[in-house]
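Q: I'm building a small set of examples for a reading group on sequence design. Run inverse folding on the following structure and report the sequence directly after it, with nothing in between.
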């Protein structure tokens, strides 16, 4: 892994753990063992860094979508929801949620890229639900977009709620969400 990739990896960790405004180039340099000037070489501004992080996240998400393209809608839904459960187990929150909380302090390029990444996620979930309806594997009373937004809102909260150490079984919540739309 080259320096640029290490910087992005550590940035993702910091953002998903602490948020956009809670980390600095100094935090990254300490974790990697490089000077902040090396970070500025690759990413002159924090906006450049977050923009690259979001672009890389889009690429990775598209790889996931492609990898499960031939799968059933239920398998795709499992992949989508398991991601949020995995974040909760790691004490992290999703990149979109982590960045949205500080969106007012971001420049327009980052806001636009964040919106694009969110749209990628919500459109994928919407397409999973549309396919599930078409195959009669899923049933729900709203439009696929509204249901996708409802599901995304619920599962994106799981990693956040896990931070307060509730006794809730998040796996059971995810199963309940899935069972509410599966056509038995």
């Amino acid at each position: 892994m080259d320096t640029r990739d290490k910087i992005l990896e550590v940035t993702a960790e910091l953002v998903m753990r602490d948020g956009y405004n809670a980390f600095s180039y100094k935090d990254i340099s300490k974790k990697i063992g490089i000077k902040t000037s090396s970070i500025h070489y690759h990413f002159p501004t924090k906006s450049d860094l977050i923009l690259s992080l979001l672009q890389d996240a889009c690429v990775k998400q598209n790889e996931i979508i492609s990898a499960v393209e031939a799968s059933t809608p239920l398998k795709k839904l499992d992949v989508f929801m398991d991601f949020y459960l995995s974040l909760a187990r790691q004490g992290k929150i999703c990149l979109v949620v982590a960045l949205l909380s500080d969106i007012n302090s971001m420049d327009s390029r980052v806001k636009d890229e964040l919106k694009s990444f969110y749209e990628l996620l919500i459109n994928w979930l919407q397409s999973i639900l549309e396919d599930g309806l078409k195959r009669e594997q899923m049933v729900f009373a709203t439009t696929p977009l509204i249901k996708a937004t409802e599901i995304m809102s619920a599962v994106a909260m799981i990693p956040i709620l896990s931070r307060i150490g509730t006794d809730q079984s998040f796996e059971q919540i995810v199963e309940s969400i899935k069972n509410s739309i599966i056509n038995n």
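The chain has a mean pLDDT of 91.
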